[in-house]
Design a protein that fits this description.
The protein has a single domain, classed as SH3 type barrels, CATH 2.30.30. Strands 3-2-1-4-5 form a five-stranded antiparallel beta sheet. A hairpin with a 2-residue loop joins strand 1 and strand 2. It has about 70 residues and is α+β, with helices and mostly antiparallel strands. Helices cover about 30% and strands about 40% of the residues.
Amino acid sequence: MYSIERFEGDRAVLDRGGERIVILRSALPPDAREGDVLRRCGHAWYVDNEATQRRRQALIARRARLREEMP
């Protein structure tokens, strides 16, 4: 699984545990956005909505923990 780290013009930077690849943005579904988790099937990329939601919830929880730890 990869996540969309960012868009740079017509390119998308994808991340998988520190491994980054750059692909054409047009290779992604038109509704893909930064932070989405992607799966690849053959030559097509798909947004994994369940994994994306879990990832977003984990990030929200992490931010909350960090705020609690700040003096």
